[in-house]
Amino acid sequence: MRPVTSSGEARQGSGALVPSEPAAGTPPASPAGSLPSLHAGGATVQPAHGGNLAWAARRYGLPPESFVDFSASLNPLGPPPGVLERVAASLGDSACRYPDPECGWARNALAAHLGVPPENVLLTNGGTEAIHLAVRWWASCVSGNRPGRGRVVLPIPTFGEYARAAAAAGAPVVHVPLAAEEDFRPSVPMLTAALRPGDLLFLCNPNNPTGALLARDELLEVWRRCLGAGAFLVVDEAFLPLAVGGEGHSLAWDACRGPGLLVAGSLTKTYCLPGLRLGYLIGPADAVAAAAAYQPGWSVSAPAQEALPACLEDTGYLARARLLITTELPLLARGLATVPGLRVFPSHANFLLVDCRGTGRTAAEWRDALGRRGLLVRDCGNFPGLDPFHFRVAVRRRRENEVLLASLPWYTMPCAASSLGG
Ligand SMILES: Cc1ncc(COP(=O)(O)O)c(C=O)c1O
Description:
Blueprint: E1 4-5, E2 9-11, E3 17-19, H1 53-60, E4 68-69, H2 83-94, H3 104-114, E5 121-124, H4 126-143, E6 152-156, H5 161-168, E7 173-177, H6 188-192, E8 200-204, H7 216-229, E9 232-236, H8 252-257, E10 261-266, H9 267-270, E11 279-282, H10 285-292, H11 302-313, H12 317-337, E12 343-344, E13 351-355, H13 363-371, E14 375-376, E15 378-379, E16 390-394, H14 398-412, H15 414-420
Parallel strand pairs: 4-14, 6-7, 6-8, 8-9, 9-10
Antiparallel strand pairs: 1-7, 2-3, 5-11, 10-11, 12-13, 13-16, 15-16
Helix pairs in contact: 2-11, 3-11, 4-5, 4-10, 12-14
Bound molecules: pyridoxal-5'-phosphate.
């Protein structure tokens, strides 16, 4: 394990900084202050995140609604029954007034659902806003908002928004590369060895795009070591409510009490409402209040606030979703692994990371071949820490997973590449 700075240096066991070779096709991490764009810039440039149907429509010449989207890892059940109807029925009223700036009703409902006091919860415009607010909060703690006083430490590969939030806050990024031979699974010493006072360690649990899950005991030990090093910890639990074996591993409750720890979550993933945008930040009440000071007014729309209590009312919904994922994840993994040349990484999340180098084709080639057939997978070539031979596939419903699996052997046939131009 060698932590790598955003300038491409790696720290070895001795503590010396040495140049590191980025993997082929891996973009360098963003230096402090430069913000990678979320705009795909036409149909040729790979978008920053999955789920970009407008980009896919331009690239493949198909209507956006015609795609089966395996590139965004949402709850495969879709939104809880009745929620969209409730939101639609309230729209005439809610769209014509300002939302509650405190999100009182929705916040109380979420706090009760998570078993934490409301003053420890901040509702956000998606998990993405929670990530950005967490970084702003940390930056204000360590530097009074002056850039460059601490580093954001990222085990890679991981979700790209952490580096964007660091860049937006003017903070340098340090990478801790995870090893493919170890299925990208981090260990506590690996995560904490390079921490310095004032650093912010970001953990995604389970991790996007690898699906690796850290147990609560391990997380508590990481937190303990962060405190010992004078560092901060943010755990992004965006995929935890949908994770196989994820129960009992949340730090939400601990974050309310402890210093230096925030937990972020994405309700847009949990309840499949990515267009409505809902997320949350949990932490000590003073930290939550400080983070809230950076949030633009009325950030969470009235329809989103309306949707949340409705989502929580269906108490069996999450259990049904987890049952579906628990059943489909191994089927999808086994199906993918039967394709010669595909290596599937073990995952606890509602998605699978696949290494396709054994097929002789890049992830972009796989993405395009499937995209032309209306099936979207996430080319992971732009994740620092991965190379152009990784793609990610979300777990969907049985029928959709079967359609994807049925399409894969076809692309491994020699005639497929020539008929499609690769
Ligand atoms: C790990 C992780 N956290 C947070 C988010 C953001 O989710 P949201 O759509 O709620 O902003 C994503 C989205 O892909 C993600 O992968």
